[in-house]
Amino acid sequence: MKYSNLLRRLLVVSIFSAAALVMVPAESHAQAYPCGSPGPGEQVVGMTQGGNGVASVPLCQRVDSGDSGGSGGSKQARPDPVQNGIGALMQIQRTELGILGRIDQLKKDPRYAPIIAGKWDFYQDRSSDRPGEYCSALFTNAAGMVRVSGPGSHYPGAMITFWGPDIPKPGAQQIIKVALTQSDDNQPQTVRAYNYTQPGLDYGAIALAIPAAGALIDNMLDRLSFTLEVDGKRVLFIGWHSGLKARDRLRQCMNKRS
User: Is 172 exposed, middle or buried (0-12, 13-18, 19+ CB in 10 A)?
Assistant: First the structure.
């Protein structure tokens, strides 16, 4: 079965209803957002409420760097692939060549060449002592980023999260309708998704919850692109390569989960 057909079927199951999207963060003074996989400098602070066939998903908040738990001695902060990736993309977009859209010339710059070509980062939330939790594969190229992540703790599903400069940047997390089209069938599907602004950065994110992590990962394609539209406007077009490599790394990580 092709990935897109499977994803299409899973997204039908995971259409969000208002009752299923009540946020229950542990702390209300800071914005919590559906993270799918808490990265460096993040922690899970709650879950969305599941219901009507929709699985609960983790909510994260940014935490201060340095001593992260009071367990005696500070821990050196690990690089955050999402924050680093967005920072690099913003640098590219601010360069003269980026403003002019001269991607071919940017490919010759060793600082930006890996991102222009498209690269994967693989990581896991190590604040949990349980192996195989919150495994993540993040793909970055000049258009933006897409991450496949999960499962973890009491969350059995996966999440697909997209970042891009044209994705809406709300002041507070919201639920929006997104028209999603994938390259191997080109059939748009309207779904409800989480939309938030990446904490600390002027960058929008759209996250889709998928109930069956194993089925999603097992059916990833080597090359696949996504088009996201909001209110009739295209907000992101991004395609990955080497998807089978990402699938194998995710499966290897997830298999460690008891």
Answer: exposed
Among 194, 204, 197, 97, which residue's Cα sits nearest to residue 144?
Answer: 204
Query: Distance between CA atoms of 150 and 44, rounded to whole angstroms?
Result: 13
pLDDT at 27: 40
Q: Which token pair is 102? A: 């001269």
What number is the average pLDDT over the span 51-61?
A: 61
Q: Using one digit for the tens of pLDDT, what is the confidence trace for 202-252? A: 899 998 888 878 888 888 999 999 999 999 999 999 999 999 999 999 999
Q: Is 254 helix (H, G, I), strand (E, B) or coil?
A: helix
Predicted structure pTM score: 0.80
Q: Is residue 179 a contact partner of residue 189, using CB atoms and an 8 Å limit?
A: yes
- Domain containing 22 equals 3-62+78-254
Give me the number of domains the chain comprises: 1
